[in-house]
Amino acid sequence: MINPKVISRILANTDLKTKMRLAKVVPKLGKADEVTRCMLCPNMCLYVCPVFDAERRLTVSPSVKARLAYLGETDDAIYHCLPCDACKNACPMDISVNDNLRTFRGGEVALRAIERFEKSIKVKIEEREGRILYFPGCRTFESNLFDKTVEVLEKLGIEFALTSVDCCGMPYYELGLVDKFREKISKLRQVASKYEGVISNCPHCVHVMRENGIKAAHILAVLKPVKIGGDVSYHDPCILARKLDVVEEPRKLLAEMGFEVHEPAFSGKDTHCCGYGGVYRYIAPDMAKKVAERRREHFDYEIVTACPSCKMALKGKDIVELMADAL
Amino acid sequence: MIEKAVEEIKSAGVKISTNIEDRIAYCKDYNPLHLPKLLKKELPALPQAIAFPKTTEEVSRILQVANAYGVPVYVFGGGSGVIDAATPYDGGIAVSTLGLDFVDVDEENMLVRAGAGVVGGRLEKVLNHRGFTLRHSPQSLYCSTVGGWVATAASGQFSTGYGNIENLLISLTAVLPDGEVVVERATPRRAGPDLKRIFVGSEGLLGVVTEAVMKIFPLPEEFLTLSVEYESIGDAVRDAKALMQLKPALMRIFDDEESLRYFDSESFTLIAVFEGKSASAKLKEAKEMVSGEVADGRAEKWLEKRFDVSDISRIVPLGFIFDTIEVACFWRDAEKVYTEVLKAIRGVEGTVTASAHASHFYESGLCFYFTFAGLPADIESYYEEVWRKAVETSLRNGGNLTHHHGVGRLRKRWLSAEIGGYYPLLRDLKSILDRRNILNRGVML
Ligand SMILES: Cc1cc2nc3c(=O)[nH]c(=O)nc-3n(C[C@H](O)[C@H](O)[C@H](O)COP(=O)(O)OP(=O)(O)OC[C@H]3O[C@@H](n4cnc5c(N)ncnc54)[C@H](O)[C@@H]3O)c2cc1C
Ligand code: SF4
Ligand code: SF4
User: Fold this and answer.
1) How many alpha carbons lie under 13 Å from residue B16 in its C-beta half-sphere?
2) What pLDDT, in 10s, does the model give residues B177-228?
3) Which residues 235-274 of B are in CB contact (within 8 Å) with A?
4) Is the Cβ pair A57, B313 closer than 8 Å?
5) CA-CA distances (angstroms) from residue A248 to A86, A231, A264, B57?
6) A122-221 placed in CATH 3.40.50
7) Model-level pTM?
8) Structural domain boundaries of chain A?
9) Which of B21, B30, B315 sits opposite A73 (nearest CB)?
């Protein structure tokens, strides 16, 4: 809303021809789309973008990626994004660069990346019955968290089911492969509908499920404290903190487990992606590693987190793992 | 020529790209005239290649090769400069300094050594985590670089208490246009003339800054604010001058139009921040000194919004052109500069809003920062007329050419009027250091 006093000042100080032009454009105020607005911004979220920080070229910076999309140059840079939304978190217009770029994707780079992703999946599940579905997500296997999570859930007496559905569809979604994504998520939705709800280690999976009408929660929701103690630094997984709004819970849990929890540079909603989010690893693997290396420099103590991808990238421990070791 | 230069740079092991996406990324700085062009899908300029050096030696190699082939080189930091300086109108090679990105904190001596390509916001985050601050906080902190600050003689929101970038510098490493590297010993003070100063504000004309050692400060324990309202700019300026005895960390005066936008009030507003151990005593004294009415909360409101420039993105698509003109003047000329420059901008057909704040203060004077938005029939001629009238009015009334945005191509026609006898000296320096005129051709001179 423009202050009416500002309007009367404008009317008092502006010449007639300009007033006539104003009358024509004012109804369009605020109507420009997000890509256009972002392209016109001087890159005010540059300092928080992990991809830019690793690659060190303006080409993959938030506003320039919007510029490239606007100009129809969509071959490569627009894929260089973690879906971390650090930009959105810092943006006065609440713009997510990644959300805007998704519709421009789906080209060659997407096809190559998805091939690499599919080759990387190694999911091995023995089905079992239960009231709620435990959906580990592919990264839980890659980071060797699956067996430990099963062990912890069993020890906590949680009655959980396992099925062989292996993918929430997130990589297809992020790469703009819409049809394939729909196929994956409908399969999961159908399976999930048989249970009271779904739990997962992976914030990405939980977010995708929730966005697509599946009742899902991060595994933190069912964990109970086990006394351990010591000094740790907590890394907020970006999707967990920013998209699922889970910031205080892991800190509280760790404190109840006797830990002194230290904050790194960039924490809470202002966290910094570990580099292994989304599909950046299948687009620019060296740069994803570089994001991870640079993120590790922000910590003063052993890194504890609550995401299988972050655990791998940061060579830290997942809270579930700490529990499995202590239970 | 360019192909050979690119090959040679590549074979020296320096990353260089001729990819169209990289070239588009380095096609302009943030001069507002580029934005309507982008909206029409036109590119203001296009370099033929982008070099991404990671070390001072790599910068040196690039410049040696560029010299050998006479290829123009444009230096890019964050590209947030607003004076049409980094825009590569002659094509050639854009050198991106962003790969020079190391940060070494020396807590004992309260220094930071940083690569030229380090982005301000990140540097500040890293320092804050360790309990320090650079207290150099331009509004573009989040998108500008250390090298860019030096090259443009940047000034931050806390300059009144902590100084401008030149006051924070301890030492610099730079590469001259022919590739020679100049390094100096870092000491709290030095012998002889302080020649690194030739790089401060030289906008990439005389060399590429590759690293800087700067002072850092402990994060202040106390941070107290003062907000006061006035009926006229003169009253506010007089109080600001008096308050300088208390050395506020930050001080600003918003005119009635800006007060309306920020605080929904049509008075003139002064805000000040006092930091550190004696902050409460200073605040108490300040409250007793000022002649205006204390209006609590305005400083906080501004602090919260101080990095928000989203209006640009909202109004430019409608056909508006928006820019800022910052000039310095002595106390004596303050009211005149404020009134006359505003009148000059408002007098140009097409102007919709024109306002000002004073943002940086010195013992001897201050900086006025004028903001205008126009919806003209022809953007380019309107923009040129506003700039011409504003600058000429400033110079005529005791104001100067620029306080901190720099000269670039935008203001170069007035530079000799500002620096007088130093202008030929600058030309001589340029021709001695850059015989083939490869570096930032067309900028400033
Ligand atoms: C929204 C906004 C707010 C701003 N607020 C302020 C402010 O408060 N205070 C202020 O002072 N400025 C401000 N500016 C202007 C701009 O941010 C500064 O001039 C900044 O210092 C430029 O840094 P950069 O890294 O973006 O440099 P660039 O824009 O990339 O370059 C600017 C100039 O410096 C040269 N250059 C860059 N790096 C080097 C190097 N390493 N060696 C030699 N030459 C180099 C370039 O060739 C060019 O001539 C603002 C700009 C914007 C868009
Ligand atoms: S996301 Fe927001 S802050 Fe970042 S570049 Fe786009 S408009 Fe600017
Ligand atoms: S989503 Fe993350 S990686 Fe992508 S532009 Fe935003 S901050 Fe950068």
Assistant:
1) 28
2) 999 999 999 999 989 999 999 999 999 999 999 999 999 999 999 999 999 9
3) 257, 260-261, 264, 266
4) no
5) 19, 17, 15, 47
6) yes
7) 0.97
8) 16-104, 122-221, 224-326
9) B21
